[in-house]
Amino acid sequence: MEFPVTKPLLSRLLPLAAALVLAGCAAALPPLPAATDTPPQFKEQRDPARWTVAPAAEAQPRGEWWKAFGDPVLDDLVARADAHNTDVAQAGARLAQARALLRGAQADRAPQIGVGAQAARNAGAATTGGPAPATLLQTGVNLSYELDLFGRLARAQDAAALDAQQREALLQSTRLLVQAELAQTYLALRATDTERALVQDTARAYGDTLRLTQRRFEAGDVAELDVIRIQTDLAATEAEAFALERQRSALENALAVLVGAPASGFTLPTRTADNTARELPVIPAGVPASVLARRPDVAAAQAQLLAAQARVGVAQTAWFPSVSLTAAAGFASPELGDLFKWSARAWGVGALLAVPLFDGGRRDAGVQSAQAQFDASAAQYRGQVLNALREVEDQLAALRLLDEQAQAQGRAVNAAQRASAIAETRYRNGLVSQLELLDARRNELANRRQAQRVAATQQQATVQLIRALGGGWEVAAR
After folding, report:
1. Domain assignment of residue 120, yes or no
2. Residue 295: its pLDDT value, please?
3. pTM (two decimals)
4. Ranges in the chain, pLDDT < 70
5. What is the pLDDT of residue 185?
6. Does residue 32 belong to any structural domain of this protein?
7. Of the candidates 256, 247, 240, 260, which has an alpha carbon nearest to the alpha carbon of residue 189?
8. Residue ranges making up the domain that contains 203
9. Signal peptide: which range, if any (predicted)?
10. What's the total number of domains in the chain?
11. Is 40 part of a structural domain of the chain?
12. Which residues contact 356 (CB under 8 A, 6 or more apart)?
């Protein structure tokens, strides 16, 4: 049987057809930005034997990289920070929130079922002779389901899933940042302990020299100026020891915050170590493409970009009509005693079609807003990639130059120690003045402290490189 298309029917179908045409024009998702070209290797990888290749994160477990430093105290602090650090706790809560929102988006695609009851009493106007007051009692089950014909709900679920992936990557990135900051702070504290011990040893040596010089001054062998010079050096060295003590206190309090403990009840015993003699762990530099796959912040930026792309699709589907199916089954009766009788049963099914026609530009503004957010996410992702490559190059260059600086500083320390020993022998034999001996000792102290600082900077740069590479590999022995 054929139904003629009359003018009134055609006039009703034209808005629907126009909406579908507009929706079809708006359905194309924006293309993802072109991938950043990565070189085959970092420019600082000049010596292939020095660096190993790190596999991508998907093929490599997130190992306990801080154990490469071989310090049980550091291992314990990292474990405490992972359990109690406030930044990690916040990132974990945001991940839980994103997962809950994902479950909400998944629930929007499922049928909605509810149970309800209603009691109503209706009456007509007395002056118009309306019907007598009547009571209607209803109870039943309601079901509704939105047909996702144009993918709005599916894209919203995809965007929520990508948000959860982003939060998971940000949680991993936060853990890595906290671990790196904690390791740097702890290594700086141990370097301060070592430097402070060196300064204290120097102060004791100056004290011994001062007592000897005072006896010689009392015997008339040296001038008072020699005593004053040693007193000056001793006081300046003691002042440096107090400054290092203050620095250590600040580092200890910073560690307390990182592990989630009150600074008032957190202490670490003083411990010295010869950092200049300890070998740094071998860091697998890898290749730029592998680094980008390992960095959790880059993964988070990528997930954010894909979520923004999906939300452009969600905004575009606002031009499409929405179709919902409804069903209800239950009982209706004017008397409570008859409500659940079989004769009082009632049911109904229905379908609702909603076609947007005019909204003053709201949907178009929503699409433009989603597109702008996508463009911002694309720029942020590219910036994250470029920054990741720069950070690795910075630390590779720093470690290479620090290694050369440490070797040169080691030669300076050896020469200064030899010069100090010769000056002391010559001074005891009366061949040089006490001023020359003090100059030799000051030079030795300055070079030894500089060597200690270079070694501490090497450790800091090593941790920074680990963070720049995304962390987590099996430490290779050399």
Report:
1. no
2. 83
3. 0.78
4. 1-28, 34-63, 123-132, 272-279, 282-287, 289, 338, 472-478
5. 95
6. yes
7. 247
8. 20-111+134-330+338-468
9. 1-28
10. 1
11. yes
12. 19, 318, 319, 321, 363
